[in-house]
Amino acid sequence: MIVLVQFVLRLSFGLALAMLVTPSQLVTSGFFRVHLWVVMGLATLAALAALFTQGDATTWYANGVLMAALLTAAASYVGAVVWLYEQSLTGKIFLGVVFAAALAGALLDVSWEKYTTATAQALAAADVLTGGLLLGGTMAAMLLGHWYLNTPTMKLAPLQRLVILMGVAVALRAVVCGSGLALEAMQDSLSVSTWLFVAMRWLSGIVGTLLLVIMTWQTLKIPNTQSATGILYVGVICTFLGELTSQLLSASSTYPL
Predict the structure, then answer these.
(1) What is the pLDDT of residues 155-201, one digit of tens each?
(2) Maximum CA extent, the chain
(3) How open is the CA angle 253-255-257, to the nearest 5 degrees?
(4) What DSSP character marks residue 114?
(5) FRET label pair with 255: which of 58, 154, 185, 186, CA 20 to 30 Å apart?
(6) Containing H/E element for 174?
(7) Peptide bond before 256: cis, by omega within 30 degrees of 0?
(8) Distance of alpha carbon 28 from alpha carbon 158, whole angstroms
């Protein structure tokens, strides 16, 4: 259940951050309003999962992660109402609140006691940040690509910006998880089954996603937003599979994988 909460909160703050960097002058307000409702649903799911999580850390978990998830859901609702009236500046402020609340919840959800060195703690924090950036950036790019079906006259610049964000996120994930994998391998020999899951994690969440970023960028040069959106759908599946595998591997390792 904790994996679910962490995954959903990462996706929530990543999606909020991606919407923050999306220029509201070039994208209709409906995009922000509708997808803040998506974040509200994700945060509600995280709150429910946190509420029913059992374990030794139940008290701080319920008080910290639960409150952060509830704040994320509430800010998402108010933000969506603000975007309904096309108040872009105030809407961006609420997107910042959503981002901060979901990020705080994701960081509180980390089992910091297992990271005994400064290097491990730094990599754990970077793991949360870069993981959310990749999940949210990919999801936002796919949703924005789909939005072009509703508003085909929009300029391509906002979608291209999110595709660049995806590429940066993939590179950062490769650095963080590659460093963690190297340190983990030097510290202890990994089993064959672990290596198989690591291979799946990298082939899907890093290499596969990077190839899809390149394909999307080239498709936008045609330009063909419908085909690019189809590629981004596959990108969402690859990142979800890669990041969930990464979380499961990292749950039993000293460093994020």
Answers:
(1) 999 999 999 999 999 999 999 999 999 998 888 778 888 899 999 99
(2) 57
(3) 80
(4) G
(5) 58
(6) helix 157-187
(7) no
(8) 11
Q: 253 in helix, strand or coil?
A: coil
Write the DSSP assignment of 185-200 as a string of letters.
HHHSPPPHHHHHHHHH
Of the candidates 8, 10, 77, 67, which has an alpha carbon nearest to the alpha carbon of residue 43?
8
Contact between residue 250 and residue 256 where contact means Cβ atoms under 8 Å apart: yes
CB 7 within 8 A of CB 246: no
Closest CA to 229 of 135, 133, 131, 163: 163
* Structure-token pair, residue 251: 């749950």
pLDDT in tens, 28-61: 999 999 999 999 999 999 988 887 765 444 555 5
Q: Is the pLDDT of residue 142 over 70?
A: yes
What's the pLDDT tens digit per position in 237-249? Answer: 999 999 999 999 9
Q: Please give the structure tokens belonging to residue 253.
A: 């390792």
Which strand (E) or helix (H) includes residue 230? helix 225-250
Could you say which DSSP state residue 156 is in? S
